[in-house]
Design brief:
The structure is a single chain. The chain is of the alpha/beta class. The chain has two domains: 172 residues, Rossmann fold, CATH 3.40.50.1970; 195 residues, Dehydroquinate synthase-like, alpha domain. The strands form three sheets. Strands 1-2-9-6-5-3-4 form a seven-stranded mixed sheet, with helices on both faces. A two-stranded antiparallel sheet has the order 7-8. It has a two-stranded antiparallel sheet with strand order 10-11. Helix 4 links the parallel strand 5 and strand 6. Helix 5 runs parallel beside helix 6. The longest helix has 21 residues. It is globular. The protein starts with a strand and ends with a helix.
Protein backbone atom coordinates (compact mmCIF):
# COMPACT_ATOMS: atom_id res chain seq x y z
CA UNK A 1 0.00 0.00 0.00
CA UNK A 2 1.09 3.55 -0.76
CA UNK A 3 0.25 5.93 2.08
CA UNK A 4 0.75 9.68 1.65
CA UNK A 5 0.26 12.06 4.56
CA UNK A 6 -1.04 15.59 4.03
CA UNK A 7 -0.40 17.90 6.99
CA UNK A 8 -2.22 21.15 6.25
CA UNK A 9 -1.73 22.74 9.68
CA UNK A 10 -0.39 21.60 13.03
CA UNK A 11 -3.79 20.17 13.95
CA UNK A 12 -5.12 19.25 10.51
CA UNK A 13 -3.79 16.27 8.61
CA UNK A 14 -5.08 13.25 6.73
CA UNK A 15 -3.84 10.28 4.74
CA UNK A 16 -4.24 9.27 1.12
CA UNK A 17 -4.26 5.49 0.74
CA UNK A 18 -3.52 3.93 -2.67
CA UNK A 19 -3.99 0.17 -2.93
CA UNK A 20 -5.59 -2.27 -5.34
CA UNK A 21 -8.66 -3.78 -3.65
CA UNK A 22 -8.79 -1.33 -0.74
CA UNK A 23 -12.52 -0.87 -1.32
CA UNK A 24 -13.03 -4.29 0.27
CA UNK A 25 -11.09 -3.63 3.47
CA UNK A 26 -11.25 0.05 4.32
CA UNK A 27 -13.54 -0.51 7.32
CA UNK A 28 -10.59 -0.73 9.71
CA UNK A 29 -9.33 2.68 8.55
CA UNK A 30 -12.79 4.27 8.67
CA UNK A 31 -13.32 3.07 12.23
CA UNK A 32 -10.52 5.40 13.33
CA UNK A 33 -12.04 8.34 11.46
CA UNK A 34 -15.81 8.07 12.00
CA UNK A 35 -16.06 7.38 15.72
CA UNK A 36 -19.83 7.01 16.04
CA UNK A 37 -19.98 4.53 13.12
CA UNK A 38 -22.68 6.43 11.21
CA UNK A 39 -22.03 7.32 7.56
CA UNK A 40 -24.05 8.52 4.59
CA UNK A 41 -22.69 7.63 1.16
CA UNK A 42 -23.28 10.16 -1.64
CA UNK A 43 -22.97 8.59 -5.08
CA UNK A 44 -24.61 8.41 -8.50
CA UNK A 45 -26.79 5.61 -9.91
CA UNK A 46 -24.09 4.05 -12.12
CA UNK A 47 -21.37 3.99 -9.47
CA UNK A 48 -23.86 2.72 -6.91
CA UNK A 49 -24.79 -0.16 -9.20
CA UNK A 50 -21.11 -1.02 -9.68
CA UNK A 51 -19.65 -0.53 -6.20
CA UNK A 52 -22.45 0.28 -3.77
CA UNK A 53 -22.99 -3.33 -2.68
CA UNK A 54 -19.26 -3.91 -2.18
CA UNK A 55 -18.89 -0.75 -0.10
CA UNK A 56 -22.01 -1.56 1.93
CA UNK A 57 -20.62 -5.02 2.69
CA UNK A 58 -17.36 -3.48 3.85
CA UNK A 59 -19.17 -0.97 6.05
CA UNK A 60 -21.37 -3.68 7.56
CA UNK A 61 -18.22 -5.63 8.37
CA UNK A 62 -17.08 -2.61 10.34
CA UNK A 63 -20.50 -2.34 12.02
CA UNK A 64 -21.31 1.02 10.46
CA UNK A 65 -24.85 2.36 10.20
CA UNK A 66 -25.10 3.30 6.52
CA UNK A 67 -27.44 5.23 4.21
CA UNK A 68 -27.02 5.86 0.50
CA UNK A 69 -28.17 8.98 -1.38
CA UNK A 70 -27.99 9.15 -5.17
CA UNK A 71 -27.50 12.28 -7.25
CA UNK A 72 -27.52 12.12 -11.09
CA UNK A 73 -24.10 12.15 -12.73
CA UNK A 74 -22.86 14.98 -14.92
CA UNK A 75 -21.32 18.41 -14.43
CA UNK A 76 -24.71 20.11 -14.83
CA UNK A 77 -25.80 18.45 -11.54
CA UNK A 78 -22.90 20.01 -9.62
CA UNK A 79 -25.07 22.96 -8.67
CA UNK A 80 -26.87 24.68 -5.81
CA UNK A 81 -30.13 22.81 -6.49
CA UNK A 82 -28.33 19.46 -6.04
CA UNK A 83 -26.78 20.76 -2.81
CA UNK A 84 -30.25 21.78 -1.59
CA UNK A 85 -31.54 18.30 -2.43
CA UNK A 86 -28.76 16.77 -0.34
CA UNK A 87 -29.47 19.14 2.57
CA UNK A 88 -33.10 17.99 2.47
CA UNK A 89 -32.09 14.34 2.44
CA UNK A 90 -29.62 14.78 5.30
CA UNK A 91 -32.27 16.49 7.40
CA UNK A 92 -34.77 13.71 6.64
CA UNK A 93 -32.20 11.21 7.89
CA UNK A 94 -31.49 13.39 10.95
CA UNK A 95 -27.80 13.62 10.11
CA UNK A 96 -25.91 15.48 12.83
CA UNK A 97 -22.37 16.75 13.33
CA UNK A 98 -21.12 13.29 14.22
CA UNK A 99 -22.32 11.83 10.89
CA UNK A 100 -19.68 11.16 8.26
CA UNK A 101 -20.20 11.74 4.54
CA UNK A 102 -18.52 9.45 2.01
CA UNK A 103 -18.18 10.68 -1.58
CA UNK A 104 -18.24 7.59 -3.80
CA UNK A 105 -17.79 8.64 -7.41
CA UNK A 106 -15.96 10.97 -9.74
CA UNK A 107 -15.12 14.64 -9.50
CA UNK A 108 -18.72 15.87 -9.64
CA UNK A 109 -19.72 13.65 -6.72
CA UNK A 110 -16.59 14.57 -4.77
CA UNK A 111 -16.92 18.33 -5.27
CA UNK A 112 -20.65 18.34 -4.50
CA UNK A 113 -20.36 16.09 -1.44
CA UNK A 114 -17.41 18.13 -0.19
CA UNK A 115 -19.38 21.37 -0.57
CA UNK A 116 -22.30 19.91 1.36
CA UNK A 117 -19.99 18.47 4.04
CA UNK A 118 -18.37 21.89 4.49
CA UNK A 119 -21.66 23.76 4.85
CA UNK A 120 -24.15 21.39 6.53
CA UNK A 121 -24.16 22.19 10.28
CA UNK A 122 -20.87 24.04 9.64
CA UNK A 123 -19.00 20.89 8.83
CA UNK A 124 -19.25 17.09 8.73
CA UNK A 125 -16.43 14.57 8.46
CA UNK A 126 -15.69 13.92 4.79
CA UNK A 127 -14.13 10.86 3.15
CA UNK A 128 -13.35 10.56 -0.55
CA UNK A 129 -13.49 7.28 -2.48
CA UNK A 130 -12.81 8.51 -6.02
CA UNK A 131 -13.85 6.13 -8.80
CA UNK A 132 -12.49 7.92 -11.89
CA UNK A 133 -8.85 8.38 -12.82
CA UNK A 134 -9.37 12.16 -12.95
CA UNK A 135 -10.79 12.24 -9.42
CA UNK A 136 -8.10 9.91 -8.10
CA UNK A 137 -5.21 12.07 -9.24
CA UNK A 138 -6.76 15.52 -8.96
CA UNK A 139 -10.15 16.55 -7.57
CA UNK A 140 -10.08 14.37 -4.44
CA UNK A 141 -6.68 15.79 -3.47
CA UNK A 142 -6.18 19.20 -1.88
CA UNK A 143 -9.46 20.17 -0.24
CA UNK A 144 -11.15 22.25 -2.94
CA UNK A 145 -14.94 21.86 -2.81
CA UNK A 146 -17.42 23.74 -4.99
CA UNK A 147 -20.55 23.87 -7.10
CA UNK A 148 -20.95 25.56 -10.46
CA UNK A 149 -22.96 28.63 -11.47
CA UNK A 150 -24.44 28.88 -14.99
CA UNK A 151 -22.03 31.76 -15.67
CA UNK A 152 -18.88 30.42 -14.01
CA UNK A 153 -17.45 27.05 -13.03
CA UNK A 154 -16.57 26.29 -9.38
CA UNK A 155 -17.42 29.87 -8.42
CA UNK A 156 -19.30 28.87 -5.24
CA UNK A 157 -17.03 26.91 -2.95
CA UNK A 158 -14.47 26.72 -0.21
CA UNK A 159 -11.42 24.86 1.04
CA UNK A 160 -12.48 21.88 3.15
CA UNK A 161 -10.11 19.01 3.80
CA UNK A 162 -11.30 15.39 3.98
CA UNK A 163 -10.47 13.01 6.82
CA UNK A 164 -9.07 10.48 4.33
CA UNK A 165 -8.88 9.60 0.64
CA UNK A 166 -9.06 5.94 -0.43
CA UNK A 167 -7.86 5.26 -3.98
CA UNK A 168 -8.52 1.81 -5.45
CA UNK A 169 -7.04 1.47 -8.97
CA UNK A 170 -9.14 -1.66 -9.57
CA UNK A 171 -12.28 0.46 -10.03
CA UNK A 172 -10.76 1.94 -13.18
CA UNK A 173 -11.55 -1.28 -15.05
CA UNK A 174 -15.17 -0.16 -15.47
CA UNK A 175 -14.37 3.28 -16.86
CA UNK A 176 -15.02 4.28 -20.45
CA UNK A 177 -12.09 5.11 -22.72
CA UNK A 178 -13.16 8.74 -22.54
CA UNK A 179 -12.87 8.73 -18.74
CA UNK A 180 -9.41 7.15 -18.88
CA UNK A 181 -8.31 9.87 -21.31
CA UNK A 182 -9.76 12.57 -19.06
CA UNK A 183 -7.52 11.35 -16.25
CA UNK A 184 -4.44 11.09 -18.44
CA UNK A 185 -4.97 14.72 -19.55
CA UNK A 186 -4.81 15.86 -15.94
CA UNK A 187 -1.63 13.82 -15.44
CA UNK A 188 -0.13 15.53 -18.51
CA UNK A 189 -0.96 18.89 -16.92
CA UNK A 190 0.69 17.93 -13.63
CA UNK A 191 3.76 16.57 -15.42
CA UNK A 192 4.28 19.52 -17.73
CA UNK A 193 4.11 22.10 -14.92
CA UNK A 194 6.04 20.14 -12.32
CA UNK A 195 8.38 17.47 -13.68
CA UNK A 196 10.09 17.10 -17.08
CA UNK A 197 11.02 13.53 -16.05
CA UNK A 198 7.38 12.65 -15.37
CA UNK A 199 6.44 14.17 -18.72
CA UNK A 200 8.99 11.92 -20.45
CA UNK A 201 7.62 8.93 -18.51
CA UNK A 202 4.13 9.76 -19.78
CA UNK A 203 5.35 9.96 -23.36
CA UNK A 204 7.01 6.55 -22.98
CA UNK A 205 4.02 4.86 -21.34
CA UNK A 206 1.06 6.57 -23.00
CA UNK A 207 -0.07 3.55 -25.01
CA UNK A 208 0.15 1.22 -22.00
CA UNK A 209 -2.01 3.69 -20.09
CA UNK A 210 -4.57 3.75 -22.88
CA UNK A 211 -4.54 -0.06 -22.85
CA UNK A 212 -5.27 0.05 -19.07
CA UNK A 213 -2.13 -1.69 -17.89
CA UNK A 214 -3.04 -1.79 -14.19
CA UNK A 215 0.54 -1.57 -12.91
CA UNK A 216 1.29 1.42 -15.14
CA UNK A 217 -1.97 3.07 -14.07
CA UNK A 218 -0.99 2.54 -10.42
CA UNK A 219 2.35 4.19 -11.12
CA UNK A 220 0.60 7.09 -12.85
CA UNK A 221 -1.67 7.61 -9.83
CA UNK A 222 1.21 7.51 -7.34
CA UNK A 223 3.35 9.93 -9.35
CA UNK A 224 0.48 12.35 -10.00
CA UNK A 225 -0.72 12.35 -6.40
CA UNK A 226 2.81 12.88 -5.08
CA UNK A 227 3.42 15.90 -7.31
CA UNK A 228 0.04 17.45 -6.50
CA UNK A 229 0.54 16.89 -2.77
CA UNK A 230 3.96 18.57 -2.99
CA UNK A 231 2.31 21.68 -4.43
CA UNK A 232 -0.65 21.63 -2.03
CA UNK A 233 1.59 21.33 1.04
CA UNK A 234 3.55 24.40 0.00
CA UNK A 235 0.39 26.44 -0.63
CA UNK A 236 -2.78 24.87 0.87
CA UNK A 237 -5.00 27.92 0.28
CA UNK A 238 -3.81 28.76 -3.25
CA UNK A 239 -2.27 32.13 -2.47
CA UNK A 240 0.84 31.55 -4.57
CA UNK A 241 2.50 28.39 -5.92
CA UNK A 242 -0.69 26.31 -6.13
CA UNK A 243 -1.97 28.57 -8.88
CA UNK A 244 0.27 26.66 -11.29
CA UNK A 245 -2.20 23.76 -11.10
CA UNK A 246 -4.61 25.96 -13.08
CA UNK A 247 -2.68 25.57 -16.33
CA UNK A 248 -5.23 24.87 -19.06
CA UNK A 249 -8.14 25.58 -16.73
CA UNK A 250 -8.83 29.24 -17.57
CA UNK A 251 -9.74 28.51 -21.18
CA UNK A 252 -10.94 25.02 -20.22
CA UNK A 253 -13.47 26.24 -17.67
CA UNK A 254 -14.73 28.92 -20.08
CA UNK A 255 -15.33 26.24 -22.71
CA UNK A 256 -17.25 24.11 -20.20
CA UNK A 257 -19.47 27.07 -19.33
CA UNK A 258 -20.01 27.80 -23.04
CA UNK A 259 -21.03 24.16 -23.52
CA UNK A 260 -23.56 24.42 -20.69
CA UNK A 261 -21.63 21.76 -18.75
CA UNK A 262 -22.71 19.17 -21.31
CA UNK A 263 -21.10 17.28 -24.22
CA UNK A 264 -17.60 18.63 -23.55
CA UNK A 265 -15.97 16.71 -20.67
CA UNK A 266 -13.66 18.37 -18.15
CA UNK A 267 -10.67 16.45 -19.47
CA UNK A 268 -11.40 17.46 -23.07
CA UNK A 269 -11.87 21.08 -22.00
CA UNK A 270 -8.56 21.11 -20.10
CA UNK A 271 -6.78 19.54 -23.07
CA UNK A 272 -8.16 22.33 -25.26
CA UNK A 273 -7.21 24.84 -22.60
CA UNK A 274 -3.61 23.63 -22.48
CA UNK A 275 -3.32 23.76 -26.27
CA UNK A 276 -4.81 27.24 -26.59
CA UNK A 277 -2.96 28.71 -23.60
CA UNK A 278 0.28 27.26 -24.97
CA UNK A 279 -0.50 28.94 -28.28
CA UNK A 280 -0.85 32.26 -26.42
CA UNK A 281 2.53 31.61 -24.77
CA UNK A 282 4.10 30.87 -28.16
CA UNK A 283 2.59 34.01 -29.70
CA UNK A 284 4.07 36.04 -26.86
CA UNK A 285 7.46 34.45 -27.39
CA UNK A 286 7.36 32.82 -23.95
CA UNK A 287 7.72 29.25 -25.21
CA UNK A 288 9.23 27.67 -28.30
CA UNK A 289 7.53 26.06 -31.29
CA UNK A 290 9.14 22.79 -30.19
CA UNK A 291 7.47 22.94 -26.77
CA UNK A 292 4.08 23.65 -28.35
CA UNK A 293 4.55 20.62 -30.57
CA UNK A 294 5.37 18.45 -27.53
CA UNK A 295 2.04 19.37 -25.95
CA UNK A 296 0.15 18.92 -29.22
CA UNK A 297 1.71 15.53 -29.90
CA UNK A 298 0.94 13.83 -26.57
CA UNK A 299 -2.64 15.15 -26.61
CA UNK A 300 -3.02 14.06 -30.24
CA UNK A 301 -2.19 10.51 -29.17
CA UNK A 302 -5.23 10.68 -26.89
CA UNK A 303 -7.66 12.34 -29.29
CA UNK A 304 -6.44 11.69 -32.83
CA UNK A 305 -6.07 8.39 -34.66
CA UNK A 306 -3.02 9.65 -36.55
CA UNK A 307 -0.81 11.79 -34.31
CA UNK A 308 2.03 13.58 -36.05
CA UNK A 309 4.85 15.78 -34.84
CA UNK A 310 4.60 17.90 -37.99
CA UNK A 311 3.18 21.41 -37.81
CA UNK A 312 0.63 20.40 -40.41
CA UNK A 313 -1.01 17.88 -38.05
CA UNK A 314 -4.74 18.35 -37.63
CA UNK A 315 -6.25 19.91 -34.54
CA UNK A 316 -7.05 17.47 -31.76
CA UNK A 317 -10.54 18.94 -31.34
CA UNK A 318 -13.00 20.56 -33.71
CA UNK A 319 -15.17 21.96 -30.92
CA UNK A 320 -13.52 25.41 -30.90
CA UNK A 321 -14.69 26.12 -34.45
CA UNK A 322 -18.32 26.39 -33.34
CA UNK A 323 -18.06 28.67 -30.32
CA UNK A 324 -18.66 32.39 -29.85
CA UNK A 325 -15.24 33.88 -29.10
CA UNK A 326 -16.73 37.02 -27.55
CA UNK A 327 -18.77 34.94 -25.11
CA UNK A 328 -15.66 32.95 -24.19
CA UNK A 329 -13.92 36.22 -23.35
CA UNK A 330 -16.85 37.41 -21.23
CA UNK A 331 -16.77 34.13 -19.32
CA UNK A 332 -13.01 34.54 -18.78
CA UNK A 333 -13.67 37.93 -17.13
CA UNK A 334 -15.69 36.10 -14.43
CA UNK A 335 -12.97 33.55 -13.65
CA UNK A 336 -12.23 33.29 -9.92
CA UNK A 337 -8.46 33.49 -10.57
CA UNK A 338 -8.72 37.09 -11.80
CA UNK A 339 -7.58 39.93 -9.53
CA UNK A 340 -8.87 43.53 -9.73
CA UNK A 341 -10.13 43.08 -13.25
CA UNK A 342 -6.87 41.59 -14.55
CA UNK A 343 -7.21 38.33 -16.48
CA UNK A 344 -4.69 35.84 -15.11
CA UNK A 345 -3.32 32.82 -16.95
CA UNK A 346 -0.68 30.26 -16.08
CA UNK A 347 1.66 29.96 -19.06
CA UNK A 348 4.69 27.71 -19.57
CA UNK A 349 8.14 28.47 -20.92
CA UNK A 350 9.05 24.76 -21.01
CA UNK A 351 8.28 21.61 -18.99
CA UNK A 352 8.64 22.57 -15.32
CA UNK A 353 9.07 26.30 -16.03
CA UNK A 354 5.88 28.20 -15.22
CA UNK A 355 5.01 31.89 -15.36
CA UNK A 356 1.94 33.77 -14.06
CA UNK A 357 0.66 36.37 -16.53
CA UNK A 358 -1.91 38.92 -15.34
CA UNK A 359 -2.28 41.14 -18.43
CA UNK A 360 -4.01 38.72 -20.79
CA UNK A 361 -6.09 40.66 -23.31
CA UNK A 362 -9.09 39.86 -25.46
CA UNK A 363 -7.29 40.23 -28.77
CA UNK A 364 -4.64 37.61 -28.04
CA UNK A 365 -7.19 35.14 -26.68
CA UNK A 366 -9.34 35.45 -29.81
CA UNK A 367 -6.23 35.25 -32.01
CA UNK A 368 -5.18 31.99 -30.33
CA UNK A 369 -8.70 30.56 -30.68
CA UNK A 370 -8.80 31.48 -34.36
CA UNK A 371 -5.35 29.98 -35.00
CA UNK A 372 -6.35 26.81 -33.18
Amino acid sequence: MKEIKIKITKDEEYNIYIEKGILSNLDEYLSKIIKNKRVIVITNPLVNSLYGTKLLSTLKKGEFSTDFIEVPDGEKYKCISSANYLYDELLKRKADRSTGLIALGGGVTGDLTGFVAATYMRGLSLVHIPTTLLAQIDSSIGGKVAVDHPLAKNIIGSFYQPKAVFIDPEVLSTLSDKDIKNGIVEAVKIAVIKSPDFFKWLESNIYQLLNRDIDILCELIKKSVKFKVDVVLEDPWETGLRKILNFGHSIGHALEVEAGYQDLSHGEAVALGMLIETKIARNRGICSDEFEEQIKYILAILYSSQPSRSKESKSVFKYVRNIDYNRIWETLTLDKKNIQGKIRFILLRAPGKVILIDDINKEEVIKALEEF
